[in-house]
Design goal:
The complex is a heterodimer of chains A (114) and B (401). By secondary structure, chain A is mainly beta. Chain A has 1 helix and 9 strands; from the N terminus they run E-E-E-E-E-E-E-H-E-E.
Chain lengths: 114, 401
């Protein structure tokens, strides 16, 4: 899917329990941080629970988080594959997952005022 | 409907484990891991450069100190909180050779304890350093006992397998020094001369039985033999034999003009007495010493004593040592007081001082430290040897044990 610079990009992050994994849901985690980026751009940071300088995530249910990379962010993101890195912390244990979202941000030739 | 959904199944982040694994090293190449922009590491800078996460007991580090020289050392004692304490490190370089450019340079390196002292697990006899001076190879050997450690130094004669035996080290080692096991210098470097008189039973005690002439002669290393040397040895529970080496054989040592088998040691005793009398300066207990001019050995008391009185009872001696090599313009004074009470020696040190510190004040003394029983009486160095030594370090006091 292509998304133009300056468009909102909404997403869901769904948790799936792994084998031999003691974590059953997002509720078992103390902190969740999501980084969204393309090559050569500032990283858009999300955090649950909310904290300063991070975009907010909404806990839809125990296994689903929802967020939006706002137009104000995507308009300055470099064109390219949108990647997401999800980091979670449980006690002193760090977990990390990296994904390519399938979204490709493309250059918007018609600049809209936002 | 979201633009994209991600399904997350957390795996573990092994970055901390990988870091721990990387830090779990037993040998750390400081030069390669923490490269300098220019120049080379020293022992102090190399130790300090080891990252805190790497530091642990037993860690061996290696670093380059010049273009073709690498040093390897181990953090072998103490806690990692005292990581930069030099005494906690020992060299793992083995028998590397230290080049010296002159006799003065040699003595400086010998006196630089950081080069060799406390760097090795000292066994009873261990070769700990080899020095190269012109075409000569010198080796430092340590002989350790419960209370003291002796360092013997001189031209090396080693067996092919790198070991040595008593004969070679008696023959080879021309200077030695004695320190207590706590590191206090008891006798600074001094020349070792072949003795004029040897008590074989004291020199090499037998586990049982008594010496015969043949075994007693064999017990004296060739290197100690010289014309006129006198040996005495026990031949029975209450019988001693004394012989003098003359020409190529041993001859009974008897008093001139008869006397049967009586031993005549008067000549040697006279020598010892003269040396002791002339070498220990008498010092009244309440005397104030000028530390610049007071280098020497003193007997402390209320009256001068003769050599014969030096043994038995309680006696105090003061040794004021200055080492000019450490400071060309100012003497560094090191004051040690020994108290000999019926063969038991205790010592205490005065804080070393630069220049003239005036009087010795009681508050400046360390606590008394016991050195245990010493079987060898203290005698001073022969005058000729002292003069020879003066050429090397004129301000250091030497005496024989």
């Amino acid at each position: 899917m292509e998304k133009y610079q300056g468009e909102d990009i909404s997403f869901n992050v769904k948790f799936q329990k792994g084998e031999n994994e003691s974590i059953n849901s997002f509720a078992d985690l103390s902190e969740i941080t999501i980084y969204a980026y393309t090559d050569g751009c500032d990283i858009v940071r999300f955090s649950y629970p909310s904290k300063a300088n991070y975009e907010s995530l909404t806990l839809v249910n125990n296994t689903t988080l929802a967020g939006v990379i706002s137009a104000s962010k995507t308009k300055i993101m470099a064109p390219g594959f949108l990647r997401v890195e999800v980091r979670a912390r449980k006690n002193n244990e760090n977990m990390v997952e990296k994904r390519i979202t399938g979204i490709v941000i493309v250059k918007d030739l018609i600049k809209t005022e936002i | 409907m979201a633009d994209f959904d991600l399904i997350i199944q957390f795996g573990k982040d092994y970055s901390a484990g990988l870091a721990a694994l990387q830090n779990s090293v037993d040998i750390y190449n400081v030069t390669q891991k923490v490269p300098l922009q220019s120049g080379y590491y020293t022992a102090a800078t190399a130790r300090a450069a080891v990252p805190t996460a790497i530091r642990k007991k037993g860690l061996i580090i290696t670093y380059r100190t010049s273009d073709a020289i690498w040093k390897t050392e181990q953090f072998y004692k103490g806690e990692t909180s005292a990581w930069t304490t030099a005494d906690n490190w020992r060299s793992m370089d083995g028998l590397d050779i230290i080049s010296v450019s002159s006799i003065a340079d040699l003595y400086e390196k010998l006196n630089d304890a950081s080069l060799w002292l406390n760097k090795y697990n000292l066994s009873e006899k261990t070769i700990i350093r080899t020095f190269r001076f012109v075409q000569w190879i010198f080796t430092l050997i340590v002989v350790k006992s419960d209370a003291i450690t002796q360092y013997l130094f001189g031209p090396t004669i080693l067996n092919e397998d790198g070991t040595f035996n008593d004969a070679t080290y008696f023959e080879s080692y021309i200077i030695k020094r004695t320190i207590s096991n706590s590191g206090t210098v008891i006798v600074p470097w001094h020349y070792v001369d072949k003795p004029d008189f040897v008590n074989i039973d004291a020199f090499k005690p037998l586990a049982s039985g008594y010496y015969t002439p043949d075994t007693a002669h064999a017990a004296l290393p060739n290197s100690m033999r010289k014309q006129g040397i006198v040996i005495t040895y026990r031949t029975a529970a209450s019988a001693w034999a004394t012989e003098r080496y003359v020409g190529t054989s041993w001859q009974p040592f008897v008093a001139e003009g008869g006397g049967g088998g009586d031993v005549d040691l008067s000549e040697i005793e006279d020598d010892i007495e003269v040396l002791q009398k002339t070498s220990f300066k008498y010092l009244a207990s309440d005397t104030n010493l000028n530390m610049i001019t007071a280098l020497g050995a003193y007997y402390i008391g209320t009256a001068e004593i003769s050599g014969a009185q030096l043994t038995g009872g309680s006696k105090d001696f003061l040794f004021v040592v200055g080492n000019k090599l450490l400071s060309p313009t100012e003497k560094v004074n090191d004051i040690t007081q020994y108290r000999i009470t019926n063969g038991e020696i205790t010592m205490r040190k005065h804080y070393p001082a630069y220049g003239n510190i005036g009087n010795i004040t009681p508050a400046s003394w360390d606590e008394w430290t016991s050195l245990g029983a010493q079987t060898t009486p203290i005698a001073t160095m022969t005058e000729s040897a002292y003069e020879a030594l003066e050429e090397i370090d004129e301000n250091t006091l030497y005496f024989l044990t």
